[in-house]
Amino acid sequence: MVKLRLKRFGKKREVSYRIVAIKSDARRDGRPLEELGFYNPRTDEVRLNVPAIVKRLQQGAQPTETVRSILRKANVLEQVGA
């Protein structure tokens, strides 16, 4: 199964995340199928590739709870109808 989840990167205590499509059994920082966005929790900066995210969701990818809340705040889930 394909999941939309966060991939951690950055220095210690200066973390930021990439939103990626990845196989559910892969490790957290493993090679993703596709990078779909960026999230910085320290500044609440979010950049999303909305067409690619909508395409992945329509193909059946399941977002984690954290990614789901980010997508809900950006009104992306309404475009899919989920």
Automatic annotation (TrEMBL):
InterPro entries under this entry? Ribosomal_bS16 (IPR000307), Ribosomal_bS16_CS (IPR020592), Ribosomal_bS16_dom_sf (IPR023803)
- Quote the cellular component terms of the Gene Ontology held in the record: cytoplasm; small ribosomal subunit
Entries under Gene3D superfamilies matching the protein:
3.30.1320.10
* GO BP term, example: translation
Keyword tags: Ribonucleoprotein, Ribosomal protein
HAMAP family the record matches:
Ribosomal_bS16
Instruction: Name the chain's protein.
Output: Small ribosomal subunit protein bS16
Q: What is the source species?
A: Symplocastrum torsivum CPER-KK1
Provide the gene name from the record: rpsP
